[in-house]
Amino acid sequence: MKNIQVHIFDKTYTLQGDLDPAYVEKLAQMVDTRMRELAQASGSVDSGRLAVLAALHLADELESRRRERGELHRRVQRCVRLVESALKRPI
Q1: 20 is in which domain, residue-wise?
Q2: Cβ partners under 8 Å of residue 70, min gap 6
């Protein structure tokens, strides 16, 4: 396990883990960016409130992408069934 320091909304956090430090820094930057966007839009400086709002926004993005991926998977399966059905028909 290695210690990784990240900076989010003007605070430094030391994390421990086996992840690539560059990857962890990228994730921290995403959170920092989202918190700053929310702070600017809302005028809030309460870091706890902004952290919760940022987490909700990022969770919403994740869930939306999961739904999109599920829909894409269903569409691909439908296409596969159509192709397989077409290949079974006599010419």
Answers
A1: 2-88
A2: none
Rounded Cα gap, residues 25 and 14, in angstroms: 11
pLDDT at residue 27, rounded to an integer? 97
Q: Which amino acid is residue 50, in one-letter code?
A: L
Burial code (b: 16+ CB inside 10 Å, e: under 16) for 2-17 equals: eebebebbeeeeeeee
For residue 26, which phi and psi values (nearest 5 degrees)? -60, -45
Longest dimension (CA), the chain: 69
| Residue 16, pLDDT score | 95
> Which class for 68: exposed (0-12), middle (13-18), buried (19 or more C-beta within 10 A)?
exposed
Total number of domains constituting the chain: 1
